[in-house]
Amino acid sequence: MTPSSAAPRTVIENCAIATVDAQDTEYASGHVVIAGNRIESVGRGKAPEGLTDVARRIDATGHLATPGLINTHHHFYQWITRGLATDHNLFNWLVALYPTWARIDEEMVYAAAQGSLAMMARGGVTTAMDHHYVYPHGSGDLSGAIIGAARDMGVRFTLARGSMDRSEKDGGLPPDFAVETTEGALAATEETVRKHHDTAFDAMTQIAVAPCSPFSVSTELLRQGAELARRLGVRMHTHGSETVEEEKFCHELFGTGPTDYFESTGWLGEDVWMAHCVHMNDSDIAAFARTKTGVAHCPSSNARLAAGIARVPDMLRAGVPVGLGVDGTASNESGELHTELRNALLINRLGAHREAALNARQALRLGTFGGAQVLGRADQTGSLEPGKLADLVLWKLDTLAHASIADPVTALVFGAAAPVTASFVNGRQIVENGRLLTADEDAIARSTRQEAQRLARTATQG
Fold first, then answer.
1. Which of 4, 31, 105, 138 is at a distance of 20 to 30 A from 58, taking alpha carbons?
2. Neighbours of 169 (CB within 10 A)
3. Which residues on neighbouring strands pair with residue 67, listed in sequence order?
4. Are the C-beta atoms of residues 423 and 434 closer than 8 Å to each other?
5. pLDDT confidence of residue 249
6. Cβ neighbours of 150 (radius 10 Å)
7. pLDDT for res 1
C-alpha cells in the first residue's frame, strides 16, 4: 500500500537530516514530506513545488531529523520499583525484588506501562517493546493492560509475552505463586498472539513469544515456545548470556554454555533476538552471526548491575543485528533510550577496542535501524526513506546545550540529551516541545507514585 495522492501532507523543511539508510545519507539542510502515515519524500533543500493537500508546514531550522528511536528490551512493570536494590548484582537483585514483583496487579501494570512509555516517547522513542514475564495468580489481564497503555500513548509496540515455569521449588529464583505451569504459559501466549498480533505493514501492535531466561524457565518451555512461535509466525525473545553467574548456572544444569544451550532448544535464528549477550566468546558471536540472531544491547542496565561490557563492536563486525534497549527501570532508573546512544558509545570505548569501538553514527544506527532489524521491522521503519512509515523525530540542536557543536549527529550522540520538538508515529504527532500530546504527564506521575506506594504496602503485608 502506498500513500494516496489525497492523503493530508505534513511538510518539514530547513533541518539537517540523518536518514540512516544503507548509505548513511545525510543532508545539511533538507526536507521530509509525510503523506498520511508514510514518508513520501526526503531530500536536500526545500520540498517539491506544487504539493497538494498540505495540512501543515514546519520550519525546522536548528533541528536534526532522524528516524524515531526503537527500544528493543524493557520491563515496563519495573517503573513502580525504581531505586531499590541499588548495590546488587543480577541474581541478588532478582532475589531482592521478586517477592515485590510477585504482588503486581492489572492497575499497577497499566500505570507502570504508562510511566515507562511516557518517558521513552517524550525522549524520541516511536517504537517500543515490553518483555513482560511476571503473571501472578489472580492478577488480571496484564498483557491487555500493557497493550492498552501503548495504544493510548500512540506508540508502535511489540509485546514480548514472557513466561516463567521454574520457581523456587524447582531451583529457580521467583516465588512459586508468581510462575505459570508450562502448559498454562504456552496456552496464554498463544491466546495473546491470536488476539493481538497484527501482521499489517503499518501494524501498531505485534506479539513475540518470550520465555524469560534459562534460569527461570524449563527446557521444555523453551523448546515448545520456539515451536509455538514458528507455527504462529511471530518472533522470539529472551535474556541471554547476561552475567557470569548465568553462564555458570547453564554449565552446571545443562552441561553447556548459554549459546549452545539455546541452539539445542531451537533458540537461534533470524526470528530471534536476545537481551544483553554480555558474556559471549568468539564461538558464540559466530553462531549469532551465522544464524542472524539479534541482540538488544542495554549498556546502562549492564553497568547498573555490574554485568560487564558486551562485545558490540565484534558483533557488528561479524554481522550480528544489534539494537538498543532501556531494560527495566529497576535497573535503569532514567528509563530513557536517547541517553543509551551516548552510553553505548562511551561504555564500549572502555572495552578492548577503545576509541575505535563505536562512533556517533554507529550509535545512532543502533538506536534506529538496528532496532528495526532486531524487531523484524526493517522494511517498515528505522530509516527515513520514501515508502517507509512516518516514524521520525525532530531534535532541537540550536540551544546552549548543542549550538556550538558543528556536526548535528555528533551533537545528538555526544552531547546532553537533546530536546524533542516533535515526534511522529505513523504520521501522527505525539510529542510537541518535549511534552506528550497523547497523555497527561502530571497525571501519570501521580498514578505511578500511588501504585508504587500500594505495591510496597502490598509486598510488606504479603
1. 4
2. 9
3. 392
4. no
5. 87
6. 24
7. 40
Write the single-letter amino acid at 172.
Answer: G
The answer for residues whose C-beta is within 8 angstroms of residue 22's C-beta and 6 or more apart is 383
Q: HEC profile for the chain? A: CCCCCCCCEEEEEEEEEECCCCCCCEEEEEEEEEECCEEEEEEECCCCCCCCCEEEEEECCCEEEEECEEECCCCHHHHHHCCCCCCCCHHHHHHHHHHHHCCCCHHHHHHHHHHHHHHHHCCCEEEEEEEECCCCCCCCCHHHHHHHHHHHHCCEEEEEEEECCCCHHHCCCCCHHHCCCHHHHHHHHHHHHHHHCCCCCCCCEEEEEEECCCCCCCHHHHHHHHHHHHHHCCEEEEEECCCHHHHHHHHHHHCCCHHHHHHHCCCCCCCEEEEECCCCCHHHHHHHHHHCCEEEECHHHHHHCCCCCCCHHHHHHHCCCEEECCCCCCCCCCCCCHHHHHHHHHHHCCCCCHHHCCCHHHHHHHHHHHHHHHCCCCCCCCCCCCCCECCEEEEECCCCCCCCCCCHHHHHHHCCCCCEEEEEECCEEEEECCEECCCCHHHHHHHHHHHHHHHHHHHHHC
Q: What's the angle, vertex CA 80, arms to CA 331 and CA 327, rounded to 5?
A: 30
Distance of CA 38 to CAs 128, 150, 384, 426, Å?
A: 19, 20, 10, 7
- 8 Å CB contact between 70 and 375: yes
Averages of pLDDT over runs of 10 residues in the chain (462 residues) are 68 98 98 98 97 97 99 98 96 92 97 98 98 95 98 98 91 82 97 98 98 94 98 98 89 93 97 98 98 98 96 98 98 97 98 97 98 98 98 98 98 98 98 98 98 96 80
Burial class (CB in 10 A: 0-12, 13-18, 19+), 441: middle
8 A C-beta contact, residue 55 and residue 208: no
